[in-house]
Specification:
- The chain has 326 residues and is α+β, with helices and mostly antiparallel strands.
- The chain has a single domain, classed as Sandwich (Jelly Rolls), CATH 2.60.120.
- The protein is 28% helix and 21% strand.
- Strands 1-2-3-11-8-13-6-5-4 form a 9-stranded mixed sheet. Strands 7-12-9-10 form a 4-stranded antiparallel sheet, with no helix packed on it.
- Helix 3 crosses helix 6.
- 41% of the residues are buried.
- Keywords: Ethylene biosynthesis, Iron, Metal-binding, Oxidoreductase.
């Protein structure tokens, strides 16, 4: 199959659109061809769209509906789920509760964090492992938990297939990242962006410019624009508008570290100028916390040294959180 059949340009953002069907099938040549397209996108921008990804549109719609119902709850009901009360970083984050861009006003968004449900009695929770623990569930929304757990499981599976594609793109065995994908840290985040006010502070955004910490991010957008990606060649921001039936995929800092910066972790931000309420659902795939992240051999030229020391996934996350929230 030709390269053109897997990648086509998006005129607003000039980000590739990759048909994932071949990666999800049984044909090794088709998987390799899609992986090559993923590799080109990772080297160029670190951002790309995927379609034919296998996630049911009805499940996506249920997640958006439950997110809207959650954010429509009274303030006191949301504050009862405050993530500040969770050692596992799970729960509600209030409007302007985060500042991702240093020196900028706090982000004009509210959010809700979920992960794999882990009992307080689990040895990992008892040991204080990073981002391990129970979720906080809104008791007045009975359909919320099943929708989110179903979606979290589906996105975990999709992220694992994308990691296999990354391995192939790096000329590695398809199962190279299998240990990384075992019992992964994976955070689902529901986000609500009010319209950008006419009297916004200078530099105020829905989400300040930042790179993601971890491995892969899979972003589900509603039909409102707002996501912007830094184009390192033109040195300008470009729009990454919502496209029906797609996810936006981007790489985090850990993948850049792993590949000695061959693959890009790219700045991005959100500015909601639509005049409407905007909702999005990013899924952050971080991998097994004990996995060692060392420079991948195929990402070193002869005589080239790794740019980063070897760390575990958990060490990497703790350091990135320390820098961001110190």
């Amino acid at each position: 199959m030709s390269h053109a059949s897997h990648v086509s340009p998006i005129h607003e953002a000039n980000l590739p659109l990759i048909d994932l069907a071949g990666l999800l099938g049984d044909d090794p040549q088709a998987r390799s061809t899609v992986a090559q397209a993923i590799g080109r996108a990772c080297r160029d921008t670190g951002f790309f769209y995927i379609h034919n990804h296998g996630i049911d549109v009805s499940l996506q719609a249920a997640v958006f509906e439950q997110a809207r119902q959650l954010f429509d709850l009274p303030g006191e009901a949301k504050q009862a789920l405050d993530k500040a009360t969770s050692a596992a970083n799970r729960g509600y984050e209030a409007l302007r509760g985060q500042r991702l861009e240093p020196g900028a006003p706090a982000d004009l968004k509210e959010g809700f964090y979920l992960g794999c449900e882990i009992s307080p009695d689990d040895p990992r929770v008892q040991a204080g492992r990073f981002n391990h623990g129970p979720n906080q569930w809104p008791t007045t929304l009975p359909a919320f938990r099943p929708a989110m757990e179903h979606y979290h499981t589906a996105l975990t599976g999709l992220a694992e297939r994308l990691m296999a594609g990354l391995a192939l793109s790096l000329e590695l065995p398809e199962d190279y990242f299998a240990a990384f994908c075992h019992e992964p840290m994976a955070t689902l985040r529901l986000l609500h962006y009010p319209p950008q006010p006419a009297n916004a502070e200078p530099g105020e955004k829905g989400c300040g410019a930042h790179t993601d910490f971890g491995g892969l991010t899979l972003l589900l957008q509603d039909d409102n624009p707002g996501l912007q990606v830094w184009n390192h060649r033109a040195e300008t921001w470009i729009d990454a508008p919502p496209l029906p039936g797609t996810y936006v995929v981007n790489l985090g800092d850990m993948i850049a570290r792993w590949t000695n910066d061959r693959y890009r972790s790219t700045l991005h931000r959100v500015v909601n100028l639509s005049g409407r309420e905007r909702y999005s659902v990013p899924f952050f795939y971080g991998g097994n916390p004990d996995h060692q992240v060392s420079c991948i051999p195929t990402c070193l030229e002869p005589g080239e040294a790794p740019r980063y020391p070897s760390v575990t996934v958990e060490e990497h996350y703790r350091e990135m959180y320390r820098r961001t929230y110190a």
